[in-house]
Structure formats: structure tokens, C-alpha cells
Amino acid sequence: MNHSIHSADRATHLKIVVVALVAAIGIAALGISARNNADFTQTAQTTQVIKAGKPVAITSSGTSTVR
């Protein structure tokens, strides 16, 4: 048995890459599914409609004028 990655054969390198790829896909899928569920429950309860007010122009002096 060889304990060095430098002298491992091609099959060992392939196994490592496949295991890492499967793990990365699993973690990404878990993160996407957790994020979608959390966003849906939070936005469904706290969504409010904000209506636009009158247009306002900001001047360089710091005062605002309503047009």
C-alpha cells in the first residue's frame, strides 16, 4: 500500500477526483435546496408592497425639491 499521492497510480487519482466531485455536487444541492426553502418561507410572510411617492431631485446644497 502506498501512502503518497505523488506516487499513486492513475486509478487512485481518478477515484479521488470522482469522490471530490460527488461530494461537491451533494453539498451544492443541499445548499440550494436549503436556501430556496428558507427564502420562500420568509418572503411569503414579510412581503409588503411599497408604492412610489413623488419624484424628488437632490441638489448639491443638500436640500431636496419636489417636482
Nearest-integer average pLDDT: 77
Main beta sheet: 2 strands, antiparallel
- What is the number of beta strands? 2
Structural class: mainly alpha
Poorly predicted regions are: none
Computed Rg: 28 Å
Oligomer: single chain
Give me the number of helical elements: 1
For the terminal residues, how far apart are their CA atoms? Answer: 80 Å
Helicity range of the residues? 55-70%
Beta-sheet strand percentage?
A: 5-15%
Order of helices and strands: HEE
Shape: elongated
Q: What order do the strands of the largest sheet run in, or round the barrel if closed?
A: 1-2
Keywords: Membrane, Transmembrane, Transmembrane helix
Transmembrane segments: 12-32
Could you explain the architecture of this structure?
- The protein has a two-stranded antiparallel ribbon with strand order 1-2.
- It is elongated, with a radius of gyration of 28 Å.
- It has 1 helix and 2 strands; from the N terminus they run αββ.
- With 67 residues, the chain is mainly alpha-helical.
- The chain crosses the membrane at residues 12-32.
- Keywords: Membrane, Transmembrane, Transmembrane helix.
In a nutshell, what does this entry contain?
The chain is built from one helix and two strands. By secondary structure, it is mainly α. A hairpin with a 5-residue loop joins strand 1 and strand 2 (64-66).
